[in-house]
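Supplementary notes (optional reading)

For those who missed the lab, this is the record we used. Protein: DsbC/DsbD-like thiol-disulfide interchange protein. Length: 265 residues.
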Amino acid sequence: MKTELLFLAAVIAFAAPAHANSEWTKTPGGNVRLVIDNPVQPSPEIRGAIEINLDPGWKTYWREPGDAGVPPELDLTESTNIKSYALSFPTPHRFDEGNTHWAGYKKPIALPVTLTLADPAKPAHLKGHAFLGICETICIPVKAEFDFAVDNTKPTDPLTKTLIDSAFEQLPGVASATFGARSAVRKDDRVRVTVDLPSDDPNTDIFVAGDGIVTFGMSKLKDRQANSAVFSVRIISGKDKKTPPLNYTLVQGDKAVSGTIGVQE
């Protein structure tokens, strides 16, 4: 965002409704809620989404913002009967604002959530929070707390189910040998990523994320051929650490894929 940002702390408590959705909570710049697809039959996996309804002119961040920003996080460590959980990310938009470059979303977005139950035959209880930044000319870190039960006693309403299905459909496809990263090589504080592309469409970009210890900035296009490209990605923090595998989203035109690739030191 701008060189000087005013960060305002906002702690938002999600009410615990009778069904497995939080109520809409008003934040500066929009509304936020957590929705869950309540299973009607025992299932080892449950899907949901953090829905961020941005007001016009407001933005929020991708998993690795770049030069500045608050990456979205999900913490469910206080929950019961949850074996694991993961937050996924649709294809982001590149923002170039003066000397600051970052990745995020400029329209309402739903971040898919996948929950794996320890025992599918038993109900789960979600307790924790989501943490994200919502920004206009200021950036507001928002901690959204929630505490509610998830079981198979009440089916999900059709609108919520459609919203969650749509959130997962918006995720990038799976990278392949013809559309994905071919290699990643580190030299000093930069990683050079070579990608294969399905066409010669010039509208090509890549967004890269690390492991939270080693973090990356925005990519720069260094070379472009008919069906390949080379990007340089700067390491922002963790320069003294071993480079983790890169989580990337590769974009060409209106198509996008995601994948992971190891880095040659």
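If you only remember one thing from this example: The CA atoms of residues 42 and 121 lie 5 Å apart.
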